[in-house]
Design a protein that fits this description.
alpha/beta, 5-stranded mixed beta sheet
Length: 240
């Protein structure tokens, strides 16, 4: 697949694999293409942001997004989901209980999203159709990707996506906010800090030493970065 990712402000990570760093909070949206399916990892912080991601995915591949994986239940990663009509939505088991429209709206507004945009997205908040407990393999047509419930950690419901190596490109692991590069990892009230280091161990076991790890915020990193952040979190929270 030879597409001009850069023309749309995306970073190409593999054959049919890329990510965009969204403005505002530097949150990542990932895209994985198979012969028939398109998987989007996270949908942005507003319906407008989601619509922009949808338009770019369609321009790149000439078809609609068929699958969405939500990394965790925070507004800047999920509030754009409603614009992807017909897409099958996946999340870590239990995430639906954490997706509260009123809380999402308040959190978004507190972080600078306009009242109107936050209310519009919260009113049509989409909860996953499929709960991932353990691992779930999706066939996108000539390409399989692995959804892995690796949490809790940054939140109570953290879902990673592993894209196997292909065409000379390395494996790619979309980590969500379990890994952050552009700032110190954020631990809100829903973080399960005692389990966070173990979640990063799981990410490392999935991807291995040669994978590209894509944080929820910031530049792509390697296994050494993830391991160092794991040790920092363990020291910060007094866990092993």
């Amino acid at each position: 697949m030879d597409v001009s990712w850069e023309d749309f402000g995306w970073e190409r990570l593999g054959d049919g694999v890329g990510r965009r760093r969204l403005p505002g909070w530097d949150a990542t949206a990932g895209l994985v293409a198979g012969e028939h399916g398109l998987l989007l990892y996270d949908t942005g912080s507003t319906l407008q942001e989601g619509a922009e991601l949808r338009a770019q995915a369609e321009a790149l591949f000439g078809r609609r997004v068929t699958h969405i994986a939500l990394s965790h239940p925070h507004f800047d990663h999920v509030l754009g989901t409603a614009v992807f009509a017909g897409a099958e939505v996946y999340g870590a088991v239990g995430i639906e209980r954490a997706l509260d429209g009123d809380e999402m709206r308040a959190d978004a507004v507190s972080q600078g999203v306009s009242d109107e945009a936050a209310a519009e997205a919260a009113d049509v908040l989409v909860r996953p159709h499929h709960a991932v407990c353990g691992e779930w393999t999706l066939d996108l047509g000539g390409r399989q990707v692995l959804l892995a419930n690796v949490g809790p950690g940054h939140s109570g419901h953290d879902l990673a996506v592993l894209v196997p190596a292909s065409g000379g490109w390395p494996e790619v692991v979309f980590c969500g906010d379990l890994v952050e590069e552009s700032g110190e990892p954020q631990a809100g009230s829903d973080a399960v800090v005692s389990r966070w280091p173990a979640a990063l161990d799981r990410l490392l076991s999935l991807g291995g030493e040669d994978a590209v790890y894509v944080p929820g915020h910031g530049a792509a990193v390697d296994a050494a970065f993830v391991r160092a952040q794991r040790d920092q979190l363990a020291a910060r929270f007094g866990t092993s």
